[in-house]
Amino acid sequence: MSLLSWLLPRKKPLLSLEQQQRLLQLPSATALSNVPLRSQRWVVVDLETSGLNLNRDQVLSIGAVVIEDGAIDLSQAFERTLLRPDHPLSPSMLLHELGPAAIAAGSDPVDALLDFMDFVGDSPVLAFHAPFDQHMLTRALKDSLGYRLQHPFMDVAALAPMLCPQFNPRQAGLDHWINHFNLQVEDRHNASADALATAELALILFSRASVQGIDSPLALQQRLNQWQRRKQIHGF
């Protein structure tokens, strides 16, 4: 990307009248509250992307499930491939099992992202390595819709070592926690399967949080913030 392209104002996305109306009707995000953890509706999301570059790579697909009333609600699930039929194949797409059939069935990014934000509603979002997913989703929404993402994200990758200090291998990934808790995961490198695995892990962590006297989304985030500050200060 040239310096000139950074200096020039970004063009606003061209949305149809129907898409503009849908955008205006999206519910506003709400802050984390003191409701019981069990009462909170959470959207657990996983993104498959073309790479790990926060400013260049693109969202390829979105998978999400809902935790509500203290359980995973399989009737509320979301899966979209954000590709056009003429999008060229790349090694990363093959890694994520996005072959020609998936590409041919891909949704227009604008409609897919509108569908996803309608699915999220005003709920907070959970993800494993949430800062990455939050950044990528924020950029995709801004570029495609001109939408500013304000929903709170909570990082399951940070919650796990905080709530389970007895098992804290350095830089443990999702696979480490799946194996530690003997979770049955049918597939990996698939957005929907990874979102479901993250949701199963989150429920275990919510149970640990309740035992430790952390009984609301706001209290959980506050405890996480304190734990992360201590880590920075003491360097562990």
TrEMBL record:
<dbReference type="GO" id="GO:0008408">
    <property type="term" value="F:3'-5' exonuclease activity"/>
</dbReference>
<protein>
    <submittedName>
        <fullName>3'-5' exonuclease</fullName>
        <ecNumber>2.7.7.7</ecNumber>
    </submittedName>
</protein>
<keyword id="KW-0808">Transferase</keyword>
<keyword id="KW-0540">Nuclease</keyword>
<dbReference type="GO" id="GO:0003887">
    <property type="term" value="F:DNA-directed DNA polymerase activity"/>
</dbReference>
<feature type="domain" description="Exonuclease">
    <location>
        <begin position="41"/>
        <end position="211"/>
    </location>
</feature>
<dbReference type="InterPro" id="IPR012337">
    <property type="entry name" value="RNaseH-like_sf"/>
</dbReference>
<dbReference type="Pfam" id="PF00929">
    <property type="entry name" value="RNase_T"/>
</dbReference>
<dbReference type="InterPro" id="IPR013520">
    <property type="entry name" value="Ribonucl_H"/>
</dbReference>
<dbReference type="GO" id="GO:0005829">
    <property type="term" value="C:cytosol"/>
</dbReference>
<keyword id="KW-0269">Exonuclease</keyword>
<keyword id="KW-0548">Nucleotidyltransferase</keyword>
<dbReference type="InterPro" id="IPR036397">
    <property type="entry name" value="RNaseH_sf"/>
</dbReference>
<keyword id="KW-0378">Hydrolase</keyword>
<dbReference type="GO" id="GO:0003676">
    <property type="term" value="F:nucleic acid binding"/>
</dbReference>
